[in-house]
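User: quick one, sequence for these tokens?
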């Protein structure tokens, strides 16, 4: 009898991106919600550490199947750099969307309805152009780290995962209080939809795509074969 779990490449990508994005949402927003349930006593150090642990694990577990995008902006960056085809964009983003919504549902009903479910929000004490630019820069750091880590030969999967997860963690620690440090449109979308707070989505559905596209264009022109 043929093994019914013998998935095609596209199916493996879909499952990996769905489950990986679920894990990313749980670690990223779950840490914020859990801290909120405790009155914020754990703070940004805990939240950044949980980002690192969660992202490190999902990259280790699923990177070999889908290149561990878990982020529509990263998917566009990979497309521009010619790692994936236009047809694959829908495959990646649909899986990411499902995983993100399931992740937010999990956080809401397991951790509770605190801290607006980990909603990304910019700091309006800064000018709009400043925190918008910071969100672009944060995504440039992320996309740059991804291309760097995945293109250095002989790096172990654990080290690749640590570079990428560490970049996200540092972005959250140093830039989260300014721009929200989302770097990920789908991570920002689902808490906004569940809370009904949609005012800032324009930032997180534009700046990360700009940042990832900039790095994708540079990589394509300077380094891609």
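Assistant:
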């Amino acid at each position: 009898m043929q093994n019914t779990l013998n998935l095609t490449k596209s199916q493996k990508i879909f499952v990996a991106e769905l489950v990986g994005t679920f894990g990313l949402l749980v670690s990223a927003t779950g840490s914020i919600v859990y801290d909120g349930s405790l009155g914020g006593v754990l703070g940004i150090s805990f939240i950044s550490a949980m980002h690192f642990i969660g992202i490190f694990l999902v990259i280790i577990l699923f990177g070999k199947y889908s290149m561990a995008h878990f982020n529509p902006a990263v998917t566009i960056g990979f497309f521009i750099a010619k790692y994936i085809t236009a047809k694959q964009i829908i495959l990646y983003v649909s899986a990411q969307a499902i995983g993100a919504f399931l992740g937010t549902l999990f956080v809401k009903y397991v951790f509770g309805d605190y801290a607006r479910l980990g909603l990304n929000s910019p700091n309006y004490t800064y000018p709009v152009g400043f925190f918008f630019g910071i969100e672009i820069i944060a995504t440039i750091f992320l996309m740059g780290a991804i291309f760097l880590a995945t293109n250095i030969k002989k790096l172990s999967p654990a080290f690749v995962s640590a570079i990428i997860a560490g970049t996200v963690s540092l972005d959250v620690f140093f830039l989260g209080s300014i721009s929200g440090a989302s770097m990920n449109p789908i991570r920002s979308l689902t808490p906004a939809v569940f809370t009904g707070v949609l005012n800032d989505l324009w930032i997180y559905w534009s700046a990360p795509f700009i940042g990832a596209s900039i790095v994708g264009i540079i990589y394509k022109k300077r380094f891609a074969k």
